[in-house]
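Reopening this ticket.

The earlier resolution said the output was attached, but the attachment link was broken on my side. Pasting everything inline this time so it's all in one place.
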Amino acid sequence: WRCCITDADLTTPNDKGENMFYRAVSSYEKGKAKARAYHSRFHGGSFLKYLFFLLALCFVGLLVALGSGNQPIRKLVHMPHFTFGGGCTDPLTGMAVKCGTIIEGGPNDEKWIEEVITEEDMKKEEAKANPPPVDGLTTLERDNKPNKKMVESVAQDGYLVVTWANWHYQDFVHTWVTHIKECGVTGYLVGAMDDKLMQALIDKGFNTFSMRSGLTEADFGWGTPTFAKMGREKIRLIRVFLELDVTVIISDVDVLWLRNPIPYFHGYPTADILTSSDHLTNTVDDYQLERWPQAASAANIGIMMFRKPSLELVNEWIDIIEKDSQVWDQNAFNDLFRRGLVMVKDEPQHLFMAYHGKLKMGILPVAAFGSGHTFFTQRLYQTLNLQPYALHATFQFSGTPGKRHRMREFMLFEDPPSYYDHSVGFITYSVEGLDPLLKDAGPATGRMHLDNVQGHFKLVNHQLALLRNAFAITSVLGRAVVIPQFYCGLDRWWAPHAGRIPGSHFQLPFPCPLDHVLELESGLTQELDPAHFGNPTEFREFSFFANSRMPEAVRSNKVVVEICPAGQPDCSDGLTPAALKDGRVKVQAGLQSERLRTALSSVHAFKVLEFTTMTNAFGGFTDLSDWDRFANRIKGYTSLWCCVAAHPGHVHYDMLWDIPNHVDKFGRRWDQWEPKTGP
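Inline output:
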């Protein structure tokens, strides 16, 4: 305890004629316990008497504090006059106080009262001093709600490009904003669905507004109830900004803008709504709107433009999805705009009359405003030699990690500089032996049966066997593997098909996204216990070293690892480190893990080890228990191909497909692997 008092306190009257005011403050009991003596009026007496009283009070307070533990806090209140039943009033302040235990023998024999202050009392007092806002919003949210002033300060030529996200998608937001600013768009806003993201965006100087939703800060999860609720927030946003008299270009956060879209939309001044589409083939070869009804597939609401006349449709759209939580917002929009649809004869801009003939509407070109299929899988913009305006990461697998990886493969994702380095380094390799497999990898019969898919699985399995060796070396050396471009003979979908998704037209075989074959969400990106799953196996995308974000100091710090037959001159058998000569080392084929580690110890300091081949580059683990743990890990790395016309119709890939008598991730034992549907 500290008792703070001076001679002046004892002898100098205050403005109320009181000649002492003191406070004893406790720093004990986790900083909570406080004892105060208020308003004691001294009428004569010696200094020693006053001092004795103060010391005694401090001593008593110390004893109370030491013995209180988590007991209620006590405060001594001067109470020369008190009553029972009707409450107690401090005559010096006129304030009501709690009646409690009377303490006799205070200064000049005046009576004191001990007031018990509980934790609940303190919380109530704090709540009174800091009442919650009437609207339930934090200061951060209230200061950043969208309003007319905000819109007018940001809008560009009357347009506003808007997206929204929660904290889980903060790296997507960073990528979205970086791209749109590089396109020359200043009229953009990002809606923050939680304060954590809001503060981060403010700190970065991004145009942002609050749209607190009360939803999770984690992944929305496509198709989940949370995802559906998130979609409803999006539709309300459209109404908010239309009512603020701005033309809204709304886009999901997994959309990347590659060109400034405002001049494009400005070229359609009479259109009330323009929307992207899930149509899988183009009806125009340039940047015109798609032809209707030739491109009558479902409109995709990931990229849309709304002008003020569309407000009636937007209001009805909101009414529909708020009345029935089972209605998907995209389906509701498609149903709405098709009501009373009227074709416009010889319409030069391919517009049509939608929503009971009240609104002019058009479908954005699927090559220039690409979906996940027309952009990543078909690469339709390359076929037509167009410069795309945007891409939307749809038609993909492996959830959010699948979206992120596709953008990385096309060198469009904004990763931090640390992503382009590694504490140990990287390994790379080329895939040999593809040409003969590619010839027979496409549809064999054109039917939705297993005999149609044999060539596809031979092609993919060849690549999986090489990747398995690369993953094993990665786990031994502690490096990250740069996975080469995968090739597939057949497309992947969610329903039976004969090689291509119905409605699409592109060349097979084709360079396929990694999520067509590997499970990125619940496989490669999962943190697994090394005690059961062995060492981690980090990875990067095939375009990693071609990315302009890659530091030259990392890219060029490379050594070639040549896999050579036993007995060849300078070919290390792993008993001693391999000799480095002219930027190359030679390592014997089929070395087990410990010998391989020894052979490559001479080039440990190099950032990049470029293997000439992965065939026979790894001969197994020296310790068989390491193999068991590694096998447990990689079993979960592969995904599935879908589908033939059967129930079930999908076939699971198997990273161990060529190992006799192996057990797959479903516990099935294989003497010889073959494409088999299920489980």
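Reporter confirms the inline version is readable. The first strand starts at residue 2 and ends at 4. Residues 341 and 354 are 5 Å apart (CA to CA).
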